[in-house]
Write a structure and sequence with these properties.
With 330 residues, this protein is mainly alpha-helical. Helix content is 76%, strand content 1%. The protein has 13 helices and 2 strands, in the order ααααββααααααααα. It has a two-stranded antiparallel ribbon. α1 runs antiparallel to α13 and α5 crosses α8. It is globular. It starts with a helix and ends in a 12-residue tail after the last helix. The mean pLDDT is 81.
Amino acid sequence: MPRLARLVLRRLAGSVPVLLIVVVGVFLLLDSAGGDAVDAYLVSIGGGDAALAEELRARYGLDRSVLARLLLTLGQLARGDLGWSVALNRPIGAVIAERLPNTLWLMGSATALAFASGSALGIVAGRRPGSAIDRLLSGGSLMLYSVPSFWLGLVLAVVFAVRLQWLPVSGIETIASGATGLARAADVARHLVLPVAALGTIYLALFLRVMRAGMVEAWGQDYTLAARARGVSSWRVALNHAARNALLPLVTMLGLQAASMIGGSVVIESVFGIPGFGRLAQEAVAGRDAPLLMAVILVSAVMVVAANLAVDLACGWLDPRIGSGRGGRG
């Protein structure tokens, strides 16, 4: 079996118990919290008698024991059924199918921006450690990383959306625009510029510092010293020798930051009014909709597992020792 295929199978086998622990842990945690979706619904309609509350709990299966509801939830998930949202009165799978693409567009664009720009600037900074450009980029990245993403998002919205009016201030697309095809794609892209810039800039600073540290370490290795001794130009050494090895810790950091990237997207979605997972989690909490909130957390966990699997494959491609049993990360 190919080396990368063995690596994928091992990671997939290890992710099953992780997701099971997430489901059981989140279920028990939400069950221990006071109140449920029926209580929130009765408050929203101005109250109701005990008979109505009993009828609603029986309809949605909330009157069963904890073990019975847990087994029912596990059985539904095994069939690919995420359940029913009490607060929204819709299948949870349909709700997530509507909201998930918005979050994926935001996260994917921000990750691509941060990774590409951070690695490129890290190569520039690490090519000549201690130089003026190195000090400038390192200091600037430290300043950017210390800025909260929600504050940066508000500043960008005030400057570019409110004062200059170059970009829309909120939403994922213009409401009732009727645009289709490329026109709609351009409209969505305009709405994503500010949230992607706010989310991606913070992680750009982190990736820059990691790449710069990897480049500085790579310059002292034998293979770079040998290449420079043969008369290879510093840029070719940096790009062909040092950068490839310096990418390993950067790619690993990308996987470790997947969970925090999802958390950051929740904040950015709230700031810019994007109907994604962040807004959906808020609605689930406000409506005390435990099945919907658990589905959001579970899908987020699956996204983190998928991101780490992609990182393992990238590391395996960069370093042939990974997954081969000859050392490295297995």
